[in-house]
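explain this.
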Amino acid sequence: MTEPSAPAALAHPDRPRVTELRLAAFAGLRRAVLPLGRLTLLAGPSGSGKTSALRAYEALARLGGGAGLGEAFPDPVACVPERARPDAQRRRGFRIGCTADGPAGPVRLDVAVQAEPELRVVGERLTTGGVVLLETALRDPGKRAVQAAWHTAGPTPVTRGPLPDDRLGTPLLPLRVAGRTPGQRRVLAAAEQMVVALRSVFACDPEPDRMRGPVPAGPGRLLGDCGNLAEVLWRIRAECGRRHTLFVTAVRAGCAGPVADVLAGADGIGAVRAALDRGDGVRTDLGRLGDGELRYLALALVLLTGPGVLEVDPAGEVPAALQTLTVLADGFDRALDPRQRRELLGLAARMCERGHIRLVGAVSDASWAAGAEGVTVVHLNRD
């Protein structure tokens, strides 16, 4: 749980990162190209596709980590554009993709998924510098495999073989490519960059009602709904004094009344409670805080912690200094007052500038963030 220092984080400006999300045909979005900076706010009215974009990013992250399609898309039919018509074989699907930048340069990944009548990958393309490094296609609908071709250069310019149709081929390339020739090493570098950029995603949307009561003691890893906030606060206070101090400072800036400390501990019956210490002998249980204060607390804690505290699946084989945790925050400004929004955005900007964290948040209106340094605002609309 050691927090990286700012110089160490900034020493790796080329650590893999997703710089663009493409939703060619996904849910209510078509031909959408979303640039992603270190701190990005997706802004637009209800129904403009902000949540869909976050879900697509999270799904790509799961696929990049080796998950199957069923895990990445638990409701695949909902991902199909509403007006998409089935073909002669009753097939419908969707298309998404992204670009990951890093030491290997910009690497593009584009994926076509069939949602009906069976969930399967029907096409995947990995490219960099105009060279197709991996391309797959469904040739025989009766077989549970796609035909793949990957760039190898050398005496054999392209290698062909089957890959499963229920997961991405890009994470599987290290198992298929030997890395003996420059062409093979280029394929491996691009594939590994994409996988590392996509891994370590934490999707969160704090639910205040789940944070108000006591919670059972557990592993101390924060869940996406932040319902076990009290338990995680207990762990942070015990194990990471510096993070806890930074967190208390953030809480003091965003909560009403004086805050001397944030306390958490077992209540004697196996549950964990948390409270604000007002510094004069008065303690305010988290259950008495408003929705905005609880969401502010939860998001501040997310920004100040890392993969060791959040319920994520980091690339364990990659050094932490080369990884970037990406936080996907739906309703980033929901229930927050202007001061809380300003403080939280400032905290996010400082943490993202260090380089070990990136944030993609969804907001209905980003006018309050206009001109903020280091913030990329992407406007979506219902059309």
About this structure: Confidence is low (pLDDT under 50) at residues 1-11.
